[in-house]
Each structure stands twice: as C-alpha cells, then as structure tokens.
Design goal:
Blueprint lengths: L1 E6 L9 H13 L3 E4 L7 H14 L8 E6 L1 H13 L1 E6 L5 H4 L5 E4 L6 E4 L1 H8 L12 E6 L7 H7 L4 E5 L13 H9 L1
Parallel strand pairs: 1-2, 1-3, 3-4, 4-7, 7-8
Antiparallel strand pairs: 5-6
Length: about 190
C-alpha cells in the first residue's frame, strides 16, 4: 500500500473538485494507493502542528518518501513538507509568497465549504512566512502545473522558483486549474515512479 497526501488551498476543503477528482482517480486506477485528504485548519497558526501531527500519527506516509499533491496554499505547504521530510510533490498553481497575498485577507472570513467562521490576524502573516522554503534542496522532487490566466496568483513566481523542476505551463485556464483531471495519469506516474 502506498500513501499520497493531498493538501487543499486556502478557503477550500477535502470536498473541493480537485481533491475529489484525485481521490476518485486513485480509487479506480491505483486501488493500492491510499489518498489522505485532511481538512486543513482555517487558522494559519494551527496548520504546521496539524501537518506534523498527521505525519507522525501516519508513519506510512513516509515509507518510500513523502508523496504530496498540493493546490495553491496547499502547494506552498507541500514544499515546506518536502523540504522537511524529503519525497516528491506535485504542485498545482502553487502559492509562492502567500504571506504577501494574505495581507489582503486580514479580517473575518467564512469557509465556503464548512461554514466555519475565522479571522486572519496580522500575526498569521509571520506564521505563514516562517514556513517558506527559500531554497529547494532537490528541484527534481517537484512537478509543477501552472496556468497563465491564474486570477489569484502570478504563475511567473512559481515558474521562477521551480525553474529546474518538471514544469507544465498551460496557456489560459484559471486558479482552479482547468482540466486538472486530465493530468492525473502523469501525476500518478511522477509520484509512484
């Protein structure tokens, strides 16, 4: 049994379209793979401890190296985990400097999936910044899927950071990564190689 960790983005959930497409794809095409899709805390101050606890409580995630799929903020967190534990990650329109973007999100929010109310504080910016992997120890550990019409993030930031990784840059699309399901076979090949 192999294990893959899927990390959703900010204001998202395990019920997101990509998370569910990932779970369904592996259930059908790789039934020997267990996909873990945790509901990440809406509170940035809790996410690192949540991820560390998950990995410590599920040691099978580290067998043969950690394998992660991360979307947006989940891509940022995936990079943090790979640099900490080693392994491989597929990043979908990953956030590169979310601590800059989150400045615009200081204040109250409601997660559209769970209905949970929470507030982003100024102090959360530093918490997120502390998870930044400024340099990548192994560029080949990453496969990065980007679409140029991402309305939330500038894809060029990720293209630059992961320039020596396996980069797939598609013209058009949006932040959700249109046609994600078409990439699942190559994502599986990369992670399960």
């Amino acid at each position: 049994m192999q294990h893959i960790l899927y990390l959703h983005g900010f204001l998202s959930s395990p019920l997101s379209v990509k998370a569910q497409a990932t779970k369904d794809y592996f259930a059908v095409h790789h039934p020997d793979v267990q996909v873990h899709i945790p509901a990440l805390s809406n509170f940035p101050s809790k996410v690192e401890a949540q991820l560390t606890a998950l990995i410590e409580q599920t040691p099978a995630l580290l067998t043969n190296g950690l394998k992660v799929i991360g979307s947006s903020m989940g891509g940022y967190l995936s990079t943090f985990l790979i640099e900490k534990y080693a392994g491989r990650a597929v990043l979908i329109n990953p956030a590169v400097r979310p601590y800059e973007l989150l400045q615009q999100f200081i204040g109250p929010h409601v997660n559209p999936y769970s209905g949970e109310k929470f507030t982003i504080e100024a102090s959360d910016i530093d918490v997120i910044r502390a998870l930044d992997a400024n340099t990548l120890s192994e560029q080949k550990a990453y496969k990065v899927l980007l679409q140029t019409n991402d309305e939330t993030l500038d894809y060029r930031l990720a293209a630059a950071k992961y320039a020596l990784s396996e980069l797939v840059i598609e013209e058009g699309g949006d932040h959700s990564f249109v046609g994600y399901e078409n990439h699942l076979p190559s994502i599986a090949d990369f992670l399960l190689d």
